[in-house]
Design a protein that fits this description.
- This protein is an alpha/beta fold.
- The chain has 13 helices and twelve strands.
- The strands form three sheets. It has a five-stranded parallel beta sheet with strand order 5-2-1-6-7, with helices on both faces. The protein has a four-stranded mixed beta sheet with strand order 4-3-10-9. Strands 8-11-12 form a three-stranded mixed beta sheet, with helices on both faces.
- It is globular, with a radius of gyration of 20 Å.
- It binds NADP nicotinamide-adenine-dinucleotide phosphate.
Length: 337
């Protein structure tokens, strides 16, 4: 498969390095000519889980410098969410007939691109944890995998082909329920990651207060309601996505307490990754996480005031009008009425 990977950051860098090191040819698209030049000079180097690997950056250029008749059978979009949405139409023009565009961002990106660009989009998700220390220098942080599958559900020959091809470098799994997997991660990102970043605390910390617990439950309940209303069947990740006895909202009781304890055991101590965006003054992906829930809810008749309020607070933090603080959770709970 003639392959282009767009975005050689943390995840893209690990994937590109491991593919190249395994002898799988892949053309790389960096943001601009200067970043392409930096990558050519540095080469590609991965450390961490899965062992070290190095390779030459080789064929690397800005997306705009690639000829429109690129003839790629596969374009992997490994940028952040907003950049993926912006770059996708250009990337799609580089596909050969029958070629596949594979976004691997969190949240609603794959579905948004599928709605806009149609059948060329194969859904994807990264459970691969990675960081970038400098251009060309990456660390794989977990034994995670890329997940690919049809947005409409079901198995497909092309998902299997992409799995086998990229699987020569990194672990890739194909699923017949990609939408379910996307939503399983999304409901956790909406509540654990975003609320943790807003509070500037881990889930274990912020959920210990009554207002923190209320913020968690309302955010989770809204996101799960939208997932189910959209027809998705969220799958088990570390915990069951649907709390016991759930009736469109969390139902207090011993079974629910045990479920919350399992969420805390699974996700309670991770530093919310969105805090890094706040620290670096970078745009977050909230628009495609809580913002996706807030945009989709009304289309399915599900009110989403809490997730909408979270987006506003996160954007105010990004603009430095607010700072992460557990006190902000009260404002979010109040928005739910
Ligand atoms: N990192 C993780 O552990 C992890 C885990 C699970 C899911 N994800 C998801 O995976 C996606 C990528 O995350 P990441 O951490 O790898 O992000 P990242 O480190 O910021 O990498 C994104 C890269 O894409 C580049 N880029 C942006 N626009 C581009 C364009 N038009 N053409 C070519 N390159 C472009 C960026 O360049 P600049 O630096 O110049 O902006 C950056 O090098 C996100 O949606 C994230 O949520 C990440």
């Amino acid at each position: 498969m003639r392959t282009l990977l767009v975005g050689v950051g943390a995840v893209g860098g690990v994937v590109a390095t491991r593919l190249r090191a395994a002898g799988v040819p892949v053309v790389l698209a960096a943001r601009d000519a200067a970043s392409a030049e930096r990558l050519r000079a540095s080469g590609l180097h991965v450390s961490g889980v899965g062992g070290p690997a190095s390779a030459a950056a080789g064929d690397v250029a800005p997306l705009d410098a690639l000829a429109e008749d690129g003839g790629f059978d596969l374009v992997v979009l490994a940028t952040k969410a907003r950049d993926a949405i912006d770059a996708a139409p250009r990337a799609a023009r580089l596909l050969a007939p029958g070629g596949v565009l594979l976004p691997i961002q969190n949240g609603g990106v794959a579905q948004v691109l599928g709605d806009r660009l149609g059948a060329c989009v194969l859904g994807g998700l990264s459970n691969l944890g990675a960081t970038m220390a400098a251009p060309g220098v990456y660390e794989q942080r977990n034994a995670g995998h890329l997940l690919v599958g049809e947005l409409a559900g079901g198995a497909s020959e092309r998902a299997e082909r992409v799995r086998a091809w990229l699987g020569r470098g990194v672990e890739v799994r194909a699923t017949a329920n990609l939408a379910g997997a996307i939503w399983s991660k999304l409901v956790v990102n909406c509540s654990v990651t975003t609320l943790g970043a807003v509070a500037g605390r881990t889930l274990r910390d912020y959920v210990a207060t009554p207002v923190g617990r209320a913020a968690f439950e309302r955010t989770y309940d809204e996101a799960l309601s939208v997932a189910l209303a959209s027809g998705a069947r969220p799958e088990r990740m570390l915990v069951e996505p649907i709390p016991p006895g759930w009736s469109g909202r969390s139902v207090p009781g011993p079974a629910h307490e045990a479920w919350v304890a399992s969420v805390i055991a699974g996700y309670g101590d991770a530093r919310p990754s969105m805090l890094q965006d706040f620290d670096r003054g970078r745009r977050t992906e909230v628009e495609f996480i809580n913002g996706y829930v807030a945009a989709l809810g009304p289309r399915h008749g599900v009110p989403t005031p809490v997730n909408a309020a979270i987006v506003e607070v996160v954007e105010a933090i990004t603009r430095r009008e607010l700072a992460p603080d557990p006190g902000l959770l009260a404002r979010i709970v109040q928005a739910g009425g």
